[in-house]
Design a protein that fits this description.
Elements: H1 6-11, E1 15-20, H2 25-41, E2 46-51, H3 56-61, E3 69-74, E4 77-83, H4 88-98
Parallel strand pairs: 1-2
Antiparallel strand pairs: 1-3, 3-4
Length: 100
Amino acid sequence: MRDRPETQVEDMTVTLKDFYADWCGPCKTQDPILEEIEEDWDGRFDVEKINVDEAQDVANEYQVRSLPTLVIENEDGIVERFVGVTQREDIEDALESAGA
């Protein structure tokens, strides 16, 4: 079983999808919170920034109707969805629940 390191596989299974738009004021408020978490958690999850104006198909797939929307996923699917500016503690709790 040496050829398949379990920890590396598990480390990369949590993703935070950040649905935003350049014109969205609350999105600009959310950005520094996400940047702090990303820095403090040091690679324990992946971040995908999705501009809804450029990726409407992805926004539709995730049924994004308001901005900002954060979706936290793991290999089992969506763990948590936040709509509107979300506090750091709530995001971190969801990341822990997802296994980050």
